[in-house]
Fold these 2 entries.
Entry 1:
Amino acid sequence: MPQIFAKKARLADGWAQNVLLDVKDGRIVGLRTGVAGGATGGETSVDCLLPALANLHSHTFQRAMAGMTEYRAAGRESFWTWRTLMYRFLDRLTPEQVQAIAALVFVEMQEAGYASVGEFHYVHHQLGGQRYDDLAELSARIAAAADQTGIGLTLLPVLYTYGGAGQQALAGGQLRFGNDPAQFLELVSAAQGAVAALPDDAQVGIAPHSLRATCPSDLAQVLAQTPQGPVHMHISEQPAEVEQISTWLGARPVEWLLQNADVNERWCLIHATHMTQAETIGLAKSKAVAGLCPITEANLGDGPFNGPAYLTAQGRFGVGSDSNVRISLTEELRTLEYSQRLRDVERNVMVLGEGSVGETLYLGAATGGAQAVGRDAGEIRIGALADLVAIDSQHVSLCALGDDKLLDGLCFAASDAVVTDVWSAGRHQVQNGRHVARDAVERAYRGAVAALVADL
Ligand code: ZN
């Protein structure tokens, strides 16, 4: 049986020294602390073991656009270069490219310390909207990339039926996203078939894209026919969206959803950036997870999350890399806190009462992220999936810190270079800081993007 020995580990109830874990069928089945003499020889030995996070929100194909949209076109709205390029990508993207890009993204996520991902997958069809022979062709490509890289996949096929609030027709690049509820449910079932070939921890949820891309009756129908699994939805990302939904449905997006759907632990509301105090408290009380994507939200100029009120109301949260413009767990967490500090002109905001901000951010995102992607993970304990990350606490950026400051160091002083090992449900994918499949995956990615950008 595979064993992992750690000089120290952050367990559910605090730090422990000389920890030996037994792992079987992807789960932690044995856990001993204070193991005399340390390593016994047969196990993998690491310095400091933490529960690995789930990256709860990603659109993998957007990784290939990173660095291409940081240009302001005179006389255009600031979002224009980003959206224009995204649609140009959609005019070209092939199934092979979808897989090659996703595989690189999954390698980068694991090297950054994430063990699993919620892939919010919305490109389903051929150019112009025609179905592939296999309705779930592109979902199967995401599943294949997960298989290549060993990441724990929660695939979230996206319901995208309308081009804008009030049931506007799809147009242009959006045609590749489109399904009505009946075809969407067929797609989900086909995606489940594709994911069935992966290890047991992989699963399929659903993702109604946003209130503007569905309508109340379609949403109710799809929810009624999907009684289990994670439900993710983009919500309240930009003020214009809040205005459009308020005009159409007579309530702000989060307000409307809380009143009209049974929002509970299965749900993850992505962004939830622009909320009133009442919406913030309502979301917290629902026990759903707020899916925060601080780097992308900063990159797109969305605005900061209402952190203090949400934490005070015991709200649950996790983080995702969304556009994948930059995949870095440490930067994601510090950007979340820094967005709060810049707005409030204050320090140490994302912590309730008194305590370590790093612990609040890291451990909160670990349990919240696991809930959002439907994984029994987020803590190191017997029975949980072995979603684990090892860091080098003696790295020069951390070596002066005691255990009680280590997660503060990770969140504010370190880079992802401190990650030495990552296990996704026991699969040891990152070893000595490098993903075991990096070379082949990187080669395929370089070929795919060279072809993709050749005639942009
Ligand atoms: Zn998104």
Note: Residues 50 and 389 are 5 Å apart (CA to CA).
Entry 2:
Amino acid sequence: MSNYHIKHLEEYYQVYRKSVREPENFWEEVAEEHFLWRKKWDSVLEWDFKKPSVNWFKGAKLNITENCIDRHLTTRGNKTAILFEPNNPDEPSEHITYSELYKRVNKFANVLKENGIKKGDRVCIYVPMIPELAIATLACARIGAIHSVVFAGFSATALATRINDSDCKMVITSDGSFRGSKAIDLKGIVDEALDSCPNVTTVLVAKRTGAEVFMKEGRDVWLQPLLDNASNECPAEIMDAEDPLFILYTSGSTGKPKGMVHTTGGYMVYTAYTFKNAFQYTENDVYWCTADIGWITGHSYIVYGPLANGATTVLFEGVPSYPDFGRFWQIVEKHKINQFYTAPTAIRALAKQGTELVDKYDLSSLKVLGSVGEPINEEAWHWYNDTIGKNKSPIIDTWWQTETGGMMITPIPFVTPTKPTYATLPFIGVQPCLMDEEGNELKGNQVSGRLCIKFPWPSMARTIWGNHQRYKETYFSAYENKYFTGDGALRDEVGYYRITGRVDDVIIVSGHNLGTAPIEDAINEHPAVSESAIVGFPHDIKGSALYGYITLKGVGESRNHDNLKKEINQLISDRIGPIAKLDKIQFSEGLPKTRSGKIMRRILRKIASNEIDNLGDVSTLLNPECVQKIIDNRL
Ligand code: WT7
């Protein structure tokens, strides 16, 4: 029996049991069976959740790009590695074979070196979904530079915060980006960000839109001429298994974004292994994940996981609604997609369009459908299953996080059963548990509580860049010896997990993880604002949307409130990005507070969701009188 590919239910149980009883033997066998190591490990796992410190494959040497590219050259040199589908459907798609990818990554790696980037340096990648994004990422990994990809929809301020937090000395970007019918001036955003990033010495600029852009003398360089002159060969830097591979920022409930640090060996093994099994990928399949590489989903399941399996992975530049809402299905037909991985928010938006634009296309190539980023509601699940999957393609509802690096709870299609709205069973090697608020583990089935993980898995983040204490406090302090996910979950009568949502102040809007604190900070910068509280409320398409309660400074505030709302959303857009804009803004004279002055978001959340019948006891509040007014004026 191969541990690497699980094909039957019996095997799942057998392998799962082994992965829990003898995790070191299990992961050692997987690592040995399928990867290219320059040197094997001294120990498989050393860990201590108290510190916390986790080491997988300590002492091993490797380069992840040799695993993702070089080793496929003899057997898959002419196979398409990356299939680029442009925003404009009339523009030809581009098939980048493994041999071409090898050359392009090596050239790019040489350009990085020639521009002073060395092992351990941080490089910020702020590039739209074009091949250069994946290639730049891999080029960093080739030379051991730590990439920090920032989603190219973030604002200049958000970009600057991320560049400075990890002290990047280089930024890679493009002249602009295409999103549907719009062209966005990315370079302008970078220029604005760099006004407050004194340590960035070089900006490499890829050409995409052809827009005329400002190029700062001595700092900004066009990428293409450098690539044209660079050598096709760049020896891979030999990395330790625990050397950082990348930093990826995610929002927390408070404070600035957290730079989650992922390391090399364990991340590679786990993302490759989950990709193979969760998608049941076989050699000639064409796989498409619609996420952006700017999120963890794209890192693990557009770039590293698929390429480590020698897969063909589609990279789509555009949006689901351009030129019309049939675009996804047109692409499925055009490239005969076998595995399709998207977010519930996209599914809901597309379901709303009816079936006409689905029926136009041949979707018979589809074998597996995936969902990620937020709970998928019953209706969306059934639409996906019936209308897209024609009842023959299992849906894997994959629960995981930026912090976990790879999928944690998910069905394995054709192997384990699915159940609507359930992420179902833990993946091999994952040991979830549910805890009550007093810190007791809830045993048995039919329980609900806070979702924790009891044992390390290879792709977990090792720290927060520059702030190990925060890493410890956020994930390892709520429950002793356990990783706390921040999510609530229930376990049904047969042991399947259903994720019920965040239990902290993080709100998932259209699959984007947004912390309330940074949004409130942005709002509070407005001179008319005294204080604010953001909560989530249910939304048809976005899953959750943002509801802001805002108190203004002057009682005699005479400004037109519609203008004020616009200004506040503009501020949020500038500071964070358009994804964080508020759907509803209610001005209120006071916000409900505890006696210690903490805003009671729980009450505001219920009002925003129209659950005003069970607000709970408000009598202990500092200012209970404001609650009724807020209810009366709710939007
Ligand atoms: C949070 C993590 C996983 C990569 C994309 C998001 C929510 C994620 C599911 C799911 C219910 C889900 C959780 C989690 N989430 N997948 N299948 N069912 N909730 O990564 O931005 O780090 O967000 O997304 O609340 O904690 P992220």
Note: DSSP finds 20 helices and 30 strands in the chain.
